[in-house]
Amino acid sequence: MGIVRHCVVASAVALVLSGCASTSEPQDPSTEDTVSTSPGEPTPSPSPVAQQAVSDLAGTLGVDEGDITLVELEEVTWRDGSLGCAQSGKMYTQALVDGQRIVLSAGGRRYEYHSGGGRDAFYCENPTQ
């Protein structure tokens, strides 16, 4: 009877532990974590950070906000404090930063804005991530 009892307990423990196992792949912190829209999918209504990017671009280009199209809005985890827009010669915090990548279109040209870590969206002319 003792052996059967040990087998039952061992089986129960194995079942409990297998239910706790993660089915997702471990995430590599060097890659970004995309959560929202993909190109070609309908874009949700602009978030405050996307609206701020549209307003900034409209002011920079001297056009109406209605002339700017939100192409993509994506939640990302930036690899460091550069927010995916590192500039040569500058140092950045080495920590993951949650933020957004906002891709806008105006006059047939695409513009990429980045935000995160409490920083407002800014135009990133040469994205590094």
Structure description:
The protein has a four-stranded antiparallel beta sheet, covered by helices on one side. By secondary structure, the chain is an alpha+beta fold. It contains two helices and four strands. Residues 1-37 have low confidence and may be disordered. Strand 2 and strand 3 form a beta hairpin. It has a domain at 47-129.
Task: Give the topology, please.
Blueprint: H1 2-20, H2 48-61, E1 69-78, E2 97-106, E3 109-116, E4 119-123
- Major beta sheet summary: 4 strands, antiparallel
Tell me the overall shape: globular
What is the helix tally? 2
Mean of all residue-level pLDDT scores: 77
Which parts are unreliable, with pLDDT below 50 for 5 consecutive residues or more?
A: 1-37
Strand arrangement within the widest β-sheet reads 1-2-3-4
Order of helices and strands: HHEEEE
Q: Please give the radius of gyration in angstroms.
A: 23 Å
User: Care to count the β-strands?
Assistant: 4
